[in-house]
């Protein structure tokens, strides 16, 4: 089995376990939980087949839904960011994405932060919109999206810096 495949399987399992058993029990300021499991989607290879990527993203979200008894909101949010990821990659990285030479670890902090921020905000907006699912609570949705996204972005960026692969 290819080392990269083992890396992705290990990343998938570790992110789910850390999210479910540690981070889901953190309620910073009463309602803020960082959602780091989406790192799997953020770091997926650009050359991955779309069908495989969508299936893995769905399984990732569905696993989170099964552990959290959340009725499919994580699966929907993961599928949305998997679907919008190429657009975000193209808009943030331009020609580097077109020629498939983007490596997240070799990019500057600004490009990496922009990429992570866009996908995290999209994920959280979809997640909280579906979770609350009431237009009269739009301010609550926006507040939860903003603050949880900021918290998640900080934690994700720290993880990306701390666990950066030296060979890529």
From TrEMBL:
It is a multi-pass membrane protein. Its main location: membrane. The keyword Transmembrane helix applies. Keywords: Cell membrane, Cell shape, Membrane, Transmembrane, Transmembrane helix. It comes from the Bacteria. The chain crosses the membrane at residues 6-23, 35-60, 113-133, 145-163. NCBIfam families: shape_MreD. Belongs to the MreD family. This is Rod shape-determining protein MreD. It comes from Aquimarina addita.
